[in-house]
Amino acid sequence: MAKNADQQLAQNKKARHDYHILETIEAGIVLTGTEIKSVRAGRIQLKDGYAQIRNGEAWLINVHIAPFEQGNIWNQNPTRTRKLLLKKRELTQLTNDLKGSGMTLVPLKVYLKNGFAKVLIGLAKGKHDYDKRETIKRREQERDIKRQLKNYR
C-alpha cells in the first residue's frame, strides 16, 4: 500500500440511508494515545454519532471508540465528546448552513491520512419514509436492468 493512501477504518452505512448528504467536509479528530491505538485497530463505531458546533468549535458526539486492551488507567470513556479540527472559514460556513434549516452533521467515515485520523462529516437533511422507499425501489430497478443486460449478451 502506498504511504499516502487513505486507509478506511469505519463507515456509517446507515447515514446515507437515513439522510440526504448535501456536502462533505474532512476534519481531524483530537484523540488521546490509547484512543488512536484503538482507532488504528478499527475498533470504532459511527452508527449513532453526530457532530455539533458549540462556541465556535466543532465536536463529535456519541461515537464509540472501544477501550484499548493494554491501556489500563489511561483509557477514556468510549463515547466521550471529541473535538474536531476545522478551519475557521469551514466552521463559519457550517454554522450558517445549520441555522434554522433542519440540517445536521453526520460522520460518514473515519480513515487514516498520512498517519492522522480523519473523519468525513456530511451536511445532511433527514429523509422521509417515502424517500427511503423510493431509493430502495430505484436500486432494485437498476439491479434488474443490469441482470437483464448481462443475460442478453
UniProtKB/TrEMBL annotation:
<dbReference type="InterPro" id="IPR000037">
    <property type="entry name" value="SsrA-bd_prot"/>
</dbReference>
<keyword id="KW-0694">RNA-binding</keyword>
<dbReference type="InterPro" id="IPR023620">
    <property type="entry name" value="SmpB"/>
</dbReference>
<dbReference type="GO" id="GO:0070930">
    <property type="term" value="P:trans-translation-dependent protein tagging"/>
</dbReference>
<dbReference type="InterPro" id="IPR020081">
    <property type="entry name" value="SsrA-bd_prot_CS"/>
</dbReference>
<comment type="function">
    <text>Required for rescue of stalled ribosomes mediated by trans-translation. Binds to transfer-messenger RNA (tmRNA), required for stable association of tmRNA with ribosomes. tmRNA and SmpB together mimic tRNA shape, replacing the anticodon stem-loop with SmpB. tmRNA is encoded by the ssrA gene; the 2 termini fold to resemble tRNA(Ala) and it encodes a 'tag peptide', a short internal open reading frame. During trans-translation Ala-aminoacylated tmRNA acts like a tRNA, entering the A-site of stalled ribosomes, displacing the stalled mRNA.</text>
</comment>
<protein>
    <recommendedName>
        <fullName>SsrA-binding protein</fullName>
    </recommendedName>
</protein>
<comment type="similarity">
    <text>Belongs to the SmpB family.</text>
</comment>
<dbReference type="GO" id="GO:0070929">
    <property type="term" value="P:trans-translation"/>
</dbReference>
<dbReference type="GO" id="GO:0005829">
    <property type="term" value="C:cytosol"/>
</dbReference>
<dbReference type="GO" id="GO:0003723">
    <property type="term" value="F:RNA binding"/>
</dbReference>
<dbReference type="Pfam" id="PF01668">
    <property type="entry name" value="SmpB"/>
</dbReference>
<keyword id="KW-0963">Cytoplasm</keyword>
